[in-house]
């Protein structure tokens, strides 16, 4: 009889299962982190590639991947605060790819309806594929701690009381950097309710809004061309159509043919207000001085063509000028696209009747669409944009003739990029006056005290666009 103990059969190493949805989401987050890419530019080609490689990758998979990417980016600040309490080292010492996987797991646990066991196991499996077995064990240990409570319970633990530090409390609860909370609060004014509504709106998934390009298709025709119950009219712009279902706007006939485009309703309102502003005398020559990527230029070109006016669309960066040319292709009226620096323009002073200068800015008004921008921007960025914004507005006022109108626009509500710029330039440039822009958008409520207008996500369902209209008087 052999008393030798039996040896156990060797453990069979199981290969990790590759989940195309979560691998895609991880790749998108790495691109945002490593290359300063924007999710709205990175995600579409990744989704197309996934469909081409895997015929089983369907619309539900695309929707889940999109939710994982955008949800993780929007709530990154809150998830960082939670994860920090579940690891044994400062977050800066956690490798960025590991932190991306942990954030994806935290979002599935705290921000979706995915069951706890499925969220943990799927994220650990992702970690095995992209990080290796060793770090997958670390991910598993951390996520089991995260799973011990829900989002409200965690926020109560990691956010300081509002009474002790209102801005820091709101920063953690609503996942915005503290300085952004303060800047938005200053611009908005009012008490706690308003700023909380705004920060919550920044974390909501925005609707996809189309624009019916004037002279090519009407808003009613665009709406009628879409499947029933898939779209609604815009809230404020007669050219806007809101898509109520998902899908790829580029697949729509009207968009593919250039008769319509994707454009936030706030952007449409800026172009409409400038086009509606009264001018004295001629109204034949219009300028878009910072035209890229072309949404406002395409709308202005259509509106100009209906009046027999000419639009010059100028953009400094040649590749962005190419995008403007694509957006304007097929416009029924006369236009020209050029690559030129708006601070050193090739046109003569006093040439134009209407000028739009939608200046480069921090983009704090578009955090719904570009959630990663809130983590990328720094207060010192304002120092870089300020001189450029002032130079562009000054040249715009030089470009317009006496009796003509300039529209100064930003996709930021930050006071340093809006009223401070306008006030500074008007002090230095004589023969100018502000025009009350509010009556030009009579159906839009809560535009501010005037004469400039400020749109807000929580009040208007748009990006936080700012517009000041200035008439040249001498």
Salient structural properties:
alpha/beta, eight-stranded mixed sheet, four-stranded antiparallel sheet
Topology of this protein?
Layout: H1 20-35, H2 39-53, H3 59-74, H4 76-84, H5 96-111, H6 116-130, H7 133-146, H8 151-158, H9 166-174, H10 178-188, H11 192-202, E1 208-212, H12 219-224, E2 231-233, E3 240-243, H13 253-256, E4 260-262, H14 265-276, E5 285-288, H15 295-306, E6 310-315, H16 318-328, E7 335-339, E8 352-358, H17 373-376, H18 381-399, E9 400-410, H19 419-428, E10 432-435, E11 453-454, H20 457-460, E12 466-472
Parallel strand pairs: 5-6, 5-8, 6-7, 8-9
Antiparallel strand pairs: 1-3, 1-4, 2-3, 9-12, 10-12, 11-12
Helix pairs in contact: 1-2, 1-3, 1-5, 3-5, 4-5, 5-6, 5-7, 6-7, 9-10, 10-11, 14-15, 18-19
Walk me through the structure:
The protein is an alpha/beta fold. The protein has 20 helices and 12 strands. It has helices at 20-35, 39-53, 59-74, 76-84, 96-111, 116-130, 133-146, 151-158, 166-174, 178-188, 192-202, 219-224, 253-256, 265-276, 295-306, 318-328, 373-376, 381-399, 419-428, 457-460, and strands spanning 208-212, 231-233, 240-243, 260-262, 285-288, 310-315, 335-339, 352-358, 400-410, 432-435, 453-454, 466-472. Helix 1 (20-35) packs antiparallel against helix 2 and helix 1 packs parallel to helix 3 (59-74). The longest helix is centred in the C-terminal third of the chain and has 19 residues, at 381-399. The radius of gyration is 25 Å and the shape is globular. The model has no long low-confidence stretch (mean pLDDT 94).
Radius of gyration: 25 Å
Strands, total number: 12
Most strands sheet: 8 strands, mixed
Q: Structural class, from helix and strand content?
A: alpha/beta
- The helical percent reads 40-55%
Q: What is the overall pLDDT average?
A: 94
Unreliable segments (pLDDT under 50, ≥5 consecutive)?
A: none
How many H/I helical runs?
A: 20
